[in-house]
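Hi L.,

You mentioned the student needs an example of a multi-chain input paired with its predicted structure. This one should do, with 1648 residues in total across all chains.
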Amino acid sequence: MLKPEQVRERVRAFLAEHDPAAASRQDFLNARFDAGLAWVHYPEGLGGLGASRALQAVADAEFDAADAPGIDPDRNPIGRGMAAPTILAYGSDEQQRRWLRGIWTGEEVWCQLFSEPGAGSDLAALATRAASDGESWVVTGQKVWTSQAHLARWGLLLARTDPGVEKHAGLTYFACDMTAPGVEVRPLRQLTGEAEFNEVFLTEARIPDSDRIGPVGEGWKVANATLMSERVNIANARSGPRESGMIGPVAAAWRARPELRTPGLHDRLLALWTEAEVARLAGEMLRQQLAAGKPGPEGSAAKLVFARLNQEISAYEMELAAADGLRYDDWTMRRPERSSFFGRSPSFRYLRARGNSIEGGTSEILRNIIAERVLGLPSEPRQDKGVPWKDLPR
Amino acid sequence: MLKPEQVRERVRAFLAEHDPAAASRQDFLNARFDAGLAWVHYPEGLGGLGASRALQAVADAEFDAADAPGIDPDRNPIGRGMAAPTILAYGSDEQQRRWLRGIWTGEEVWCQLFSEPGAGSDLAALATRAASDGESWVVTGQKVWTSQAHLARWGLLLARTDPGVEKHAGLTYFACDMTAPGVEVRPLRQLTGEAEFNEVFLTEARIPDSDRIGPVGEGWKVANATLMSERVNIANARSGPRESGMIGPVAAAWRARPELRTPGLHDRLLALWTEAEVARLAGEMLRQQLAAGKPGPEGSAAKLVFARLNQEISAYEMELAAADGLRYDDWTMRRPERSSFFGRSPSFRYLRARGNSIEGGTSEILRNIIAERVLGLPSEPRQDKGVPWKDLPR
Amino acid sequence: MSEVGERLAAGAQAEGFPDLLYSDAERALADALRSLLGDRAAPATVLARTESAQTYDDGLWQALAADLGLAGLLIPERDGGAGASYREAAAAAETLGSFAAPVPYLGSAVVATAALLAAGAPVRGGLGPPPQAAPSAQPAQPAEPAGSSPRASTEAADLLRKMADGGVTVALAVPFATQPAPRGPAFPATVRLAGPRHGDTDSGVSRLRGTVTGVADALPAGLLLVPADGVPECLYLVDMAADGVSKAPLASLDMTRQLCDLWFDDAPGTLVASGQAAKRAVTAALAAGAAILAAEQVGLAQRCLDMTVSYARERRQFARPIGSFQALKHRMADLWVEIALARAAARYAAACLSSGDPDAPVAVAMAKAYCSQVAVHAAQECVQLHGGIGFTWEHPAHLYLKRAKADSLALGTPDAHRAALAGLVNLPGP
Amino acid sequence: MSEVGERLAAGAQAEGFPDLLYSDAERALADALRSLLGDRAAPATVLARTESAQTYDDGLWQALAADLGLAGLLIPERDGGAGASYREAAAAAETLGSFAAPVPYLGSAVVATAALLAAGAPVRGGLGPPPQAAPSAQPAQPAEPAGSSPRASTEAADLLRKMADGGVTVALAVPFATQPAPRGPAFPATVRLAGPRHGDTDSGVSRLRGTVTGVADALPAGLLLVPADGVPECLYLVDMAADGVSKAPLASLDMTRQLCDLWFDDAPGTLVASGQAAKRAVTAALAAGAAILAAEQVGLAQRCLDMTVSYARERRQFARPIGSFQALKHRMADLWVEIALARAAARYAAACLSSGDPDAPVAVAMAKAYCSQVAVHAAQECVQLHGGIGFTWEHPAHLYLKRAKADSLALGTPDAHRAALAGLVNLPGP
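Structure written out for the whole complex:
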């Protein structure tokens, strides 16, 4: 394995050959990818050096020190966080070469076409149909809760290629060209007034077989890699400094506005503060486990806790704000590129946090997963086991 | 229907003929029963006048005014609260005449032989076997959580008379003579150190067919009448004055011991006080509904709320007591005739209250009942439907 | 106390216990209201209204006033109202709450009406003693009060008569967040008297200056009852259309009851009550508002549960209705239990207000504290158990979520009402 | 802060973050301990012990001391101990907690040891400045302190050496409920100095008088560390067998750690520390106790969850394992999540204590507040989800319930620790 100094040297050598100030941003990033200095733990030839994940910070620090153009971390989160690991695990060599660079540089944004109106928690029951005509697949169906779809060049698509077998068995995974005919993206407005998400209507959209990821009928396995990455990302992303999360604005308001303080609100604040900090410590412990190469099952807990705490804290903030909580900042229908809890009113935080226990897997499904996969509790009696998808009651 | 004045006159006439001071207590009570002045809403000849339930208070007040011996309300709660309504609904004329008077006077104590070690929440799966030899039934099995069994003359017994049919269908209901050979009662010690309950071992105990209540195979229906009475009793019993429940000692300690007060404990006290009082109001509303002849489904809620509040309040009381909460009053194994939360330490209340969500139907089962019977939510997939009891997995 | 003793005490107490059940009249009113709202306040209609320029539904309010007498429910029959009590008012609020109906019932038919009734004008014959002459050091004085009492009395009675049929809608100009006294402000006034304007000749007209923020049900109001600071405190009637009165609608969390800010810039006001009578009027108004809002919360919570149950019976995942999953069933069962408790609390508060029971302050504080939490819990579960669809704008769940959360902050938060209880039931803080 | 900013800050901070993972040494210690306790502290054994005359298991404690060095885990190697840190002490406590083992580990190997270490005697060489002469108005004075410092130092070091192999068991004579300073008492002393007895010749011996109630792990202790009030405050070593010392076992909620009351009636004591050193010793002892108790609570909670999960997999009702019912599954999943969080909190507290991190007071308060609640929740769910059998005396669930609830009240309640946080993290009350 490479040592930190070796990585540092490679970056310096690269910078000696590529003047950050001279090159265009995209050219520079492309070259950095090609030099294996994008995500150093990826294989050589695919933006990496096969190095330890921990050395990424070393490379990044060198580039930062040279004032080199970097990637925009807010751009293409699904591409980098979910598409890339999935393509790395299941894509063909050609697919990896074709897509990974654009994903890392952010040149091509990706979205995820999994959920459907009739298949949310029961994702494997999805109905979007992909039928082969020999050369390519003809896809018809409706996807929902697709963030970034209006910005995306590609979508990670899970579709049904065989309705005649058990629901998990009939799925296949594709990369869907979002600019292809038959792909229509419509904003989906949520209760905050914004439309962060989209509905995607697929009407006889054609996908060449070369854009299929993984074998026909093994889409469920590939999709699970994507979902696992999603959860790892969520777990990884939550470790900020003390008070950096939803508790931040509340603690700030408490300190700045003594007139809002009451004895009853005080104990609840302290309880929430404690929970938020303990959750942060648990996130840190998880991060240390990952860094030590021993990922624990605690990752499944992170999103669950994140959702519950965001909801409890923002609800508390409303009671603290009292009269101010009765106001909203803006009901205008907007399409934010990225949602943030901060810089908005307490009432926005309260409303937006309600979605945290629904989006990306409901808290109920996460509890099922913990109970069955972590604790080994028996599954409930299944009524869809061994039944061909087409014969399931709907 | 009788008017209050008519009831009053009947009591006065009765008292004119039966000098409360002269008669023995049991004779007086027997005579009062025979005069229909025991439970005035019961039919004539069975201790009542077929009058409105509300007139009971009128009769009781007259007897109290005359200093007449009354029944001991702490004696025979299962007999009066569960056996009597069940026998009234399903017993033969002869059974009603034989048992109701002794139940009301308290001469004969009753207990309930339903739960078994292997059949708690799933009561209908019980295994105690009653086999007919023509004249009588030979009963073998083990019952558990039987309060009053060591004091009881009779037990309400639910036993399996046909293992070859679906579990609910093979049950029959009996009155079991607790003094019969083959009936053994052993104390069951609970985590408080006391033994309020018993285990009852039935070993080829014989029950004459004349002590069967309801038809063979219809025991489940009869048992449901008993369970329904139990829940109505619990609901009825919970309507005391403000602060009469578990919140009472807590509020008293708060008022008497200012040194225990903290801001954090204050808001929780107020929240618990509010909930306790609101629950009391709900009990009162339920009582008014019953009095108006419109029993609502809210009865199912009463035990659930009672258990949760007792547990939360007693847990809070421990935190308020702090150092005192670390102590217990007495670990001696005792057999109290009746359990009371009062006159004991906070730690006793805390421990005893844990049982409130288990005894007499767990809170989980009550939630199932509310969800299915009140809200009409679909039942879960049943794996025991249509399966003969003997073929059920165990 | 022994458990026997308890039972006896319970029996004794029960005889004098307020009736918590719904009367036939209340049920009939609720049924009629439900039928009317079913036609005119379907979720899609209510949602569309929140996105329109006029967020209050005037037509609906007129229909409720004309067909069901809702505008004058609490107004005595001799003044043209229905002469009903707070019990019926609560029953109506429950049904209105179950539709999140965008009408100024709470503000006009309950809060403002309660203020006018408690000011004593029509009911007790007069506004009480005229305000005392204030020390001259005060920057602004009430307009000459002498002789204003009989006029105000007549005016208040006239006003109630106009309100009774919905012809006039009135709002009390205090922030919607205001908790009733004693824990709330003794007199929630942010407006002061200004000196008379040059040219003012009517001695019965005073000039008001100041701002009131976040007022409920004032947007559709024709008249405002404005508490004004001073010695003594006074309550004035102000025409929304008068010079010097302006209003600005707010982006409100609950757009089915959109708040507004009000500005008074030497606005002309007529005295309605002063001193103790003014304080009494405002306190009674806010207490009535809190009690009736608790009933509204019960209706809202019940609607959320009903919606959730029926969705859970229909929606299938894993080849089963999601309502057959035990974790969800238990949560709905818990909600049902909470609502049963909340209903008892709200009924008790309305009953106590109706009969003038001395326990009313306790009853109102308990009801508002408890029902607020239950309504919010029900609305949150409604969104959650609907899954993705419940998080969309098109589904009505958010209308209930927003109203529930806003209502929980209105007229005193649960925390604030619990704090009020501390004093009322002798559980003092450390 | 932007989410990008956050991520960068997180990365930056993470580098200096204490290691929260279990080291190989900690895992090995826990494994060995689990194996020994599995043999000697099975639930039935522990339950029987609570009903016996000697509720502490001396033999087990000796075995833990001899085989695993548990008695001297925190004692420096040069004093005969294992020289381990609070991290290893916490790992051991987790395992002991998972058995509710009736041994004085917390009281002797953690609390008393921490007091002796912090008193500075063996580690920092000396007991600090000798106590100042007290004003003569004081009813009782410490025995002549001059020259006692070196003797005490030697004695404390000797004492640690004797404790290291379990030969001597020591308890700090303060009520188990005592919260560490700053929110707890600055010096929790209920014992005072009495004048010297007639015939006392050893100037190093003082006489103590008073009562200490509800002390943990004092029943099996041979020696007591007794904080005594006075100017300055002093910490004395008292032989449990000395004249004038008596103890009375209490009916305790948690009979696996039975409390006792202690009486001192002119009991002879030897000075260990005085003034700031005495305060420091007691504060450090209680803080260490709270942190290690939090770890114990994690172990207890995990055991409760494990028991519950395995029962739920076996127990059948309705022809299904009850662990297949979703409502129960979700509750066990929630518990598992809580325990993951509690573990992080307890690990952090132990890590901060080990490294002398200035965040230690925050870490300890958080850990004790949070882990207390989780352990109680886990034990309560353990009883509930076992149904009837969990409510019986014969089933071990109640041992955990009682220990969990008692532990939550010990060394400061959750409420008290949250109140301490208010000052530590600048979230002051109203």
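You could point out the following to them. Residues 301 and 375 of chain C are 5 Å apart (CA to CA). Residues 276-314 of chain C form the longest helix (39 residues).

Best wishes,
N.
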